[in-house]
Automatic annotation (TrEMBL):
PROSITE patterns: HTH_TETR_2. It comes from Glaciihabitans tibetensis. Residues 35-54 bind DNA. This is AcrR family transcriptional regulator. GO terms for molecular function: DNA binding. Residues 12-72 form the HTH tetR-type domain. Transmembrane segments: none annotated.
Length: 208
């Protein structure tokens, strides 16, 4: 008889094998050349088992990267919550964590970078940066430029405004990371952090 705990442990082992397989394969060759059969073989599972965990190789890789990006976002939020009232956590801290993530996974990102990253990899980066920046503005609403129209006291309108600014900054940050990853070796993380931080609108830190 198989107990639920054993089933959970087995499912987690399978998930771990899948995540390890996609990271290894995507570091060796482009995501566009990796098939479900390749991943199933590398993870020692069947194709139906793969589809029980992911829809595609890109979906699986985005999920793996998303775990680390979620951790970065949560750490940024946690650090912000520890600050005294009125103080704003520098965006440089978020930028540094993002650059470190890309640097630690440089082989993976560079192997899949032609002009831009594949949609799945690009979208997961943009999504998590957008969420982090939207939360930053919700935590410090006084930073955002004054609304051009609409009622600034309307919570839904204010959220849409913050999401708009977060989307602009997130897309720009990912494009900057792609440009940096295309640089010759050795990659300079400190330079990337400074450049991205300087590229952020000044009001993100000091208000408008």
């Amino acid at each position: 008889m198989v107990h639920y705990g054993e089933m959970d442990a087995r499912a987690q082992r399978t998930r771990d094998q899948l995540e390890s397989a996609i990271l290894d394969l995507a570091t060796l060759r482009p995501l566009s050349e990796i098939t479900v059969t390749d991943i199933a073989r590398a993870a020692s599972i069947t194709r139906p088992t793969f589809y029980a965990h992911a829809e595609s190789p890109g979906d699986l890789l985005a999920s793996v990267l998303g775990k680390e990006l979620e951790h970065i976002r949560e750490e940024f939020a946690r650090a912000a919550e520890l600050l005294p009232d009125g103080q704003v956590l520098p965006l440089e801290q978020l930028n540094r964590a993002l650059v470190r993530h890309c640097h630690d996974n440089a082989a993976l990102y560079r192997n899949n970078l032609v002009r831009r990253l594949p949609r799945e990899m690009r979208d997961v980066l943009i999504d998590h940066i957008e969420w982090a920046l939207s939360d930053h503005l919700l935590r410090h609403p006084h930073l955002a430029p004054r609304a051009l129209h609409g009622d600034p006291e309307d919570a839904e309108y204010r959220y849409r405004q913050f999401a708009f600014y977060a989307a602009i900054a997130a897309s720009g940050t990912v494009a900057a990371l792609e440009t940096w990853l295309r640089s010759p070796d050795p990659l300079d993380p400190d330079w990337a952090v400074r450049a991205i931080t300087r590229g952020n609108a000044e009001w993100w830190q000091h208000g408008h």
